[in-house]
């Protein structure tokens, strides 16, 4: 093996890459299967209400539902901006 062979990129096995990506997608689908259908709508509506008072990034609202015995727990997390950038209408 010559020194130039060391720097050559090795061809990737696209079948293995596609297989791994499919595994990730299937795992995500299985994880989301138990979540209620209303979560995307709930997230969007909560974000709309929060935006009336504070400028937040759409990705700043995280909603999670967990089972705790015979109860379902809705967990809501909103990352608010720093105080100076928070108020609507401030420039």
Textual characterization of the structure:
This protein is α+β, with helices and mostly antiparallel strands and 91 residues long. The protein contains four helices and two strands; from the N terminus they run H-H-H-E-E-H. Helix content is 45%, strand content 18%. It is elongated, with a radius of gyration of 22 Å.
Write the SSE topology:
Layout (H helix, E strand, L loop, with lengths): L2 H5 L6 H19 L6 H13 L9 E8 L2 E8 L4 H4 L5
Antiparallel strand pairs: 1-2
Features:
91 residues; alpha+beta; two-stranded antiparallel sheet; 2 strands
Give the CA-CA distance, first to last residue. Answer: 63 Å
Number of beta strands: 2
Rg result: 22 Å
Morphology call: elongated
Strand content: 15-25%
Q: Report mean pLDDT, rounded to a whole number.
A: 75
Unreliable residue stretches: none
Major β-sheet, in short?
A: 2 strands, antiparallel
Class of secondary structure makeup:
alpha+beta
Which percent range fits the helix content?
40-55%
The helix/strand order is: HHHEEH
